[in-house]
Amino acid sequence: MADLYLKALEAERKRLWATCRLKGLPKDTPERLRIVELDGLLAAHKVKLGTKLAAKTGAKKPK
Q1: Contacting residues for 2 by C-beta, under 8 A, at least 6 apart
Q2: What is the pLDDT of residues 44-63, one digit of tens each?
Q3: What is the reported pTM?
Q4: Overall number of domains in the chain
Q5: How far apart are CA 34 and CA 52, in angstroms?
Q6: Is residue 41's pLDDT more than 90?
Q7: Which residues lie closer than 8 Å to 61 by C-beta, 6 or more apart?
Q8: Does residue 63 belong to any structural domain of this protein?
Q9: Distance between CA atoms of residues 30 and 52, nearest Å
Q10: Residue-number span of the structural domain to which 26 is assigned
């Protein structure tokens, strides 16, 4: 099943990144700060998905 939250985050990040590249925006603009925020949300969500998947399959977490 498709993870719509993950797809929405990735789409927003891709759109913002394209806008920043096109306009040549510096790092301290709201768009670039939102990209950093989205990176954190994406990483947290992927960890959460990995934990759910491991629990579902009964796999042990590596040390």
Answers
A1: none
A2: 999 988 887 777 776 665 55
A3: 0.77
A4: 1
A5: 27
A6: yes
A7: 54
A8: no
A9: 33
A10: 4-53
Tokens describing residue 51: 């934990």
DSSP letter string, the chain: ---HHHHHHHHHHHHHHHHHHHHT--TTSHHHHHHHHHHHHHHHHHHHHHHHHHHHHTPPPP-
* 59 inside domain: no
Task: Identify whether the C-beta of residue 54 lies closer than 8 Å to the C-beta of residue 25.
Answer: no
By CB neighbour count within 10 A (0-12 exposed, 13-18 middle, 19+ buried), where does 28 fall?
A: exposed
Asked if residue 30 is part of any domain, the answer here is yes
Q: Which two tokens stand for residue 40?
A: 């954190």
Asked whether residue 38 is domain-assigned, the answer is yes
